Amino acid sequence: MEMPRPDPAVLARKAQLVSRLRTILADDAIIHDEMETRAYECDALTAYKCPPLLAVLPSTTQEVSDVLRVCHDMNVPVVPRGSGTSLAGGALPTADSVILGVARMNDVLETDYPNRVIRVQTGRTNLSVSGAVEEEEFFYAPDPSSQLACAIAGNIAMNSGGAHCLKYGVTTNNLLGVTMVLMDGTVVELGGAHLDAGGLDLLGVICGSEGQLGVVTEATLRILHKPEGARPVLIGFDSNEVAGACVSDIIKSGILPVAIEFMDRPCIRACEAFAKAGYPDCEALLIVEVEGSEAEIAFQLDKIKEIANRHNPVELREAQDADQAARIWLGRKSAFGAMGQINDYMCLDGTIPVSSLPFVLRRIGELSQKFGLEVANVFHAGDGNMHPLILFDANKPGDLETCEAFGAEILKLCVEAGGCLTGEHGVGVEKRDLMLHQYTAGDLDAQLAVKDAFDPRWLLNPAKVFPLAVTEARRVAA
Ligand SMILES: Cc1cc2nc3c(=O)[nH]c(=O)nc-3n(C[C@H](O)[C@H](O)[C@H](O)COP(=O)(O)OP(=O)(O)OC[C@H]3O[C@@H](n4cnc5c(N)ncnc54)[C@H](O)[C@@H]3O)c2cc1C
Fold first, then answer.
1. Considering the entire predicted model, what is its pTM?
2. Alpha-carbon span 83 to 126, nearest angstrom
3. What is d(CA 21, CA 306) in angstroms, rounded to the nearest whole number?
C-alpha cells in the first residue's frame, strides 16, 4: 500500500524540533524515524492506533524539563508514557504529539526502612519496587495485574489498584510525594516523605490526573513490612447472585480480607483451560484471601467459611500449603491472557457499591443478550471494581462498534447503580465522552479549571479524559 505523502510544513517543523531536541538528549533518546515511532502508536487499548510525530526517552528530571520547555516554545503537544499498558488509551498519541517516555528513568533513589519509604524514578516497574525492598521483608502494596510491566508513572497517573487494594488502598493511599515537571518546564515538589503536608493537597489532585497536569519524574512511596503469612480460600456457587450476596455478607461482618476476587462461569472455564488451576465447574467463584499471624488467619477464615456455608457453596477449599495457594491464584492471575487466547475482548472497569453486585450482574446478562455479544466477568469484588470482558471479533465488520456501544451501556449502568465510570484503569480516550453521564456541566467545569491552571495551552496529553468537543474548543481558545 502506498504511504500518503507527508506534508512539507509538518516535515520542516519536525526537523526543527529534532534539531532543538538534539541539544538536550543523546541521539538514541530521540526516535523520529517513521517506522520506529510505530512502537508507540498505541497502548494496551489496541483498537485505537496513531503514530506520534516522534518519541523521546529522557533519563533525568532536568532532561524532561528541557524537553518540555522546547515543546512549550514550539506549541507541540506532549503525551507522557510509562510502559504503555493503559487499557483506556491513556498513552495513545495524536499525530502532532511527542511521546515522552520515562522508561529509562528507573533508578531507586533512596530506601528508608525506619520511616517505611522508598523514593524512585517513575519509570521503574511496579513489581521491581517490591523487588528492591524484599530482602528486608518489605513490599509495595498496590498490585495491578500488569505489575510486571507497568511503571509507577502510569500507576500514579491512573491511580491504579489491584487485587490486594481492598485492605491496602490504591496508589493514592500509598503515595507520599512527587517531583513533577509542568508543561513550561518548571520543576515542582508536591507532598514529601511524611503522611500529610501543609497547603493545598495538590498531590491528591495529581494522583489520577492521567498525564493532564504535568510529567511525574520521581515518587516517594510508602512501603510496608510483609505480613507473617497469607492464605486464600476458594468458594464456588451455583449462581452469580448468591456469590454477590456472599461478598456483601463478608464485608458487612467487619472482617477485612486482603482480597476478594470474583469470576463467573465463562471466565472460570477459560482460566481453567489455560492455567489448569483445579477450579470447580460452577457458575461463580470467589477467591478470598486473609493474612496475618497463624491465629489471625485461622480466626478470619473460620468466620468467612461460616458466612459462605450460609449461602450453600458447591465448593469450599482452603489452601493447605503454599503450592495450593499459588494454584488458586494462578487461574485468576492468568484471566486476561486466558480470555485473549479465545477471543478479542474489551476490558471494562466500572465501580459499583458492593451491595448492588447481584442486580448489576443480572442486568449485564440481559444486555449481553440484547447486543448479541458474550461477557466474562472477573473483578475485585471486595471493593466493587468490576472488569466485564466483552468478547468480540475484531475481523467482523461492525463487531467493535457493537462492543463499544455495549460497553458504554455497562458503564452507564455502573453510574446508575451508584458507582462510577472507572475504578482503576482511568478515563483515557475510552470513556471521555461518557464523562457527562457521571458529572454535571458544573462538576466538569471545576475539573477543566484545574487543567487550565496547570496547562493553560492544553498541550499535555490532549484529547483524553474530557469529552472531545470540550478539549477541541479549549485548544482553539488557547
Ligand atoms: C493485562 C493487564 C492487566 C491490568 N491490570 C490492572 C489492574 O489490576 N489494576 C489497574 O489499576 N490497572 C491495570 N491495568 C492497566 C494499566 O496497567 C495501569 O493503568 C497502569 O498503571 C498503566 O501504567 P503504564 O506505566 O503502563 O502507563 P501508560 O500506559 O504508559 O500510561 C498511562 C497514563 O499515564 C500517563 N503517564 C505515563 N507516564 C506519566 C508521567 N511520567 N507523568 C504523568 N503522566 C504519565 C499517560 O499519559 C497515560 O495517561 C492492566 C493492564 C493490562 C494490560
1. 0.93
2. 10
3. 64
Of the candidates 212, 176, 340, 322, the one whose C-alpha atom is nearest the C-alpha of residue 267 is 340
What number of H helices and E strands is found in the chain? 17, 20
**Structural domains in the chain plus CATH codes:** 8-101 (3.30.43.10), 108-225 (3.30.465.10), 229-333 (3.30.70.2190), 343-416 (3.30.70.2740), 437-477 (no CATH)
Residue carrying C-alpha cell 510508602:
222
**All 3 cell numbers of residue 15?**
526537523
Ligand 1 contact, 59 CB (< 6 A): no
Look at residues 246, 281, 282 and name the one whose alpha carbon lies nearest to residue 261.
Answer: 246
- pLDDT for residue 3 is more than 60: no
Kindly state if the Cβ of 251 falls inside 6 Å of ligand 1: no
**What would the grid cell of residue 332 be?**
485468576
**pLDDT tens per residue across span 276-300:** 999 999 999 999 999 999 999 999 9
Pocket test for ligand 1, best of 100, 146, 267, 460 (most atoms within 8 A of CB): 146
pLDDT tens for residues 153-203? Answer: 999 999 999 888 999 999 999 999 999 999 999 999 999 988 877 889 999
| pLDDT tens, position by position, 312-334 | 999 999 999 999 999 999 998 88
Phi, psi of 291, rounded to the nearest 5 degrees = -145, 170
HSE-CB of 432 using CA atoms within 13 angstroms: 20
347 in Cβ contact with 410 (< 8 Å) = no
CB of 64 closer than 6 angstroms to any ligand 1 atom? no
How far apart are the C-alpha atoms of 42 and 149, rounded to whole Å?
15
DSSP bridge partners of 246: none
CA nearest ligand 1 atom 37, residue: 81
Q: Is the CB of 102 under 6 A from ligand 1?
A: yes
Helix axis angle for 322-333 and 265-275, nearest 10°, is 120
